[in-house]
Amino acid sequence: MSTRVAYLGPKGTYAEKAAKALAALEGLESPQFSPCKGLRSVVDSLANNLCEAAVVPIENSVEGGVTTTLDSLWRHKNLFIHRALVLPIKHSLMSSGSISTISEVLSHPQAIAQCSQWLNDNIPNAVHLPTNSTAEAIRMVKGSSFRAAIGSKDASEELNILAYPINDIEGNCTRFILLSRKNIKADGNKASMAFSLKSNSPGALLKALNCIANLGLNMSRIESRPSKRELGEYVFFIDLDLNNSNKKDFEKITEELSPLCSQIINFGCYFGSDVE
C-alpha cells in the first residue's frame, strides 16, 4: 500500500527534496509525492484526509518561524509531528538573460528575504515579486531576459546560473517536519507543543515556563503567534529536548500546564535528524 505525501510544489522545490529525505528516514511504504500550491493547502490536504503524510518547513535559521505552518498547526489540532530534518539552503540566481538586464526577481517570500542583502548590493533596482514556491518562480522566468528567479541550483533546468550562492548567511538552513494524523510515536529526542494562556496578566507566561523548567525540560525554541481573536493575545509554540532521563517528565507536562492554559496542543515526540 502506497503512502501519499503532500509537499509545497511544484517539482524542484527544497520541500520536495526534504519530503523525499523524510520519507526515506521514516521508512514510508511506497511513497507517492503530491505537490500542492501553497503551504496552507499542504496542511489542509492532510487534515482533510487527502493524503497520509505532509512535509512543511517550520523554521529557517535566518528568517525564523514559518508563520503559515505555525498558524495551520494551531488551526488543525489533530496533526502530529513524526520526524524533523534540517536541510541546508543554498540559493542561486537564474535567468534566461544576464545579470545586467534583470529588473524583476521572483521567488518565494522566504527565499527573497534570505537573499535581501545580496540583491540590494548587486541588483538594487530590481523589483521583488513573491511566488508560491521557488520552483514556480523558476518556471515563470523561463525565456525572459529581464526576469530572474531565486531557487535551488539543481532545479535550474535550462536557465543560466547568474550567481551562486546568493543567500546572505552562509549557514542558511531550514527545518522541515513530517506530519501525520496518527500519534504513534512513543520515542524521540524532540517534542513540540503549543498553548494559549488563560490570563493575559503580568507573569502568566513566566508561570507556564517555570512549570516546564521545574520538570527539567530544556526549551530549544519558543515562538509566539497572534491568536487572531484579539490584540495582545498570543499562542506560544515550544520545542523541547528529550533524553532517557526526562521522557517520563514530559508525560506530565499537559497536567502541569492545564491550570494555566486555556488550550494545549501536544504535537508528540519525534526524532530530529541532523543536516542532510
Observed structural traits:
9 helices; single chain; D-Maltodextrin-Binding Protein, domain 2; Alpha-Beta Plaits; alpha/beta; 276 residues; 3 domains
Please summarize what this structure is.
This protein is of the alpha/beta class.
Spell out the CATH superfamily of the largest domain.
Periplasmic binding protein-like II
Structural class: alpha/beta
Any idea of the CATH class of the largest domain? Alpha Beta
**Helix count?**
9
Spatial extent as radius of gyration? 20 Å
Average pLDDT level: 89
Strand composition percent:
35-45%
CATH topology label of the largest domain: D-Maltodextrin-Binding Protein, domain 2
Give the domain tally: 3
Q: Which percent bin holds the helix content?
A: 25-40%
CATH structural architecture of the largest domain: 3-Layer(aba) Sandwich
Number of strands: 15
Unreliable residue stretches? none
C-alpha geometry: globular
Query: What is the terminal separation in angstroms?
Result: 27 Å
Order of helices and strands: EHEHEEHEEEHHEHEEEEHEEHHE
Largest sheet: 10 strands, mixed
